[in-house]
Structure formats: C-alpha cells, structure tokens
Write a structure and sequence with these properties.
With about 160 residues, this protein is an alpha+beta fold. It has 2 domains: about 10-65, no CATH class; about 70-150, no CATH class. Helices cover about 20% and strands about 25% of the residues. The radius of gyration is 25 Å and the shape is elongated.
C-alpha cells in the first residue's frame, strides 16, 4: 500500500487489479465509469467463464464465478421410480421451464401427479402433493386447524 499525506485516504479506485488472482478468478481488465463503482472483468480458471464483478465483491472474498455451486443440482442423477417421501419420480420436465431450475413429474401415493422443483424434492421440503398436510390437519381437528396447519406451499 502506498503512503499518502495524512489529509488523504487510500483510494482503491486508482489501483489497478489487472493480472491479480482472487481464488480462481484472474482479473483481465478494470472497467471505470465516472460516478460508478469500479468493475473488474475476470476469467475463472476452473471453467473458463468470463464474468464482470464489482471490486468490492473481490475484496470481500469472492473466489470464483460460482461455477461450483450452479452445478450441484445438475449432478443429481434421478431414476424413474425413485421415492422421496410419498412422491415417486416419473420423469424430468425441465424443458418446459425457462428459469433453469430442474423440475420432475412425480406420482403421489394418493394417485395425484405433481411437478416439483428438484432441489425442494431432494432437500425434503416437499414430501407429497399436499395430501400429507390435509391428513395432518384433519387429524388435529377443526378447532385447532388454523393454529396448527400452516398455509399451503406451492410445489414449484
């Protein structure tokens, strides 16, 4: 760090990060625009993707382009007939959605079909088509239903 007179503080905007490495990210160029935070164009050494990040995120500890985290759901191998709670996987239907999240068509033990996000299914957040909640609420009785039974959560 260079020393400055006591009346001035260190100016991070003037320092170039080109060529520096932050984890798996190598800075390719500084992007400076008047009145805006300095951005850095970086290349990930793990996957080769070029990303633009704020300088603050690099100084704050960001070490990759998130390529390790985005592939987690893609690594899960589903087989037809695999069981999660009351749901049995029938097929993957992610081609019908544009948000990039994997979804699967499942058959519930009660006979109803439901489309569920893969991450919610594998984490145990979704265990049925909604029939489990209805059964629990009916067992608790009508007087306590509003207190004991949370609002329904959509499957996707």
């Amino acid at each position: 760090m260079r020393l400055l007179p006591a009346d001035r503080t260190f100016d991070y905007k003037r320092v170039s990060y080109v060529g520096k490495t932050f984890g798996h990210l190598v800075v390719l160029e500084d992007i400076r625009r008047p009145g805006e935070p300095v951005l850095e164009r970086c290349k990930c050494t793990k996957c080769g993707q070029v990303v633009t990040l704020s300088r603050a995120s690099l100084r704050g500890g960001q070490k990759s382009c998130s390529c390790g985290r985005t592939g987690a759901a893609r690594k899960i191998v589903l087989e037809k007939g695999q069981r999660f709670g009351r749901l049995i996987v029938e097929a993957e239907v992610s081609a019908f959605f544009s948000d990039g999240r994997r979804r699967v068509l499942c058959l519930c033990d009660c006979g109803q079909h439901v489309v569920v996000e893969l991450s919610r299914l594998t984490s145990g957040y979704v265990k049925s088509c909604g029939c489990l909640r209805r059964e629990i609420c009916s067992q608790l009785g009508k007087q306590k239903r509003r207190e004991a039974c949370p609002a329904p959560v959509s499957a996707t």
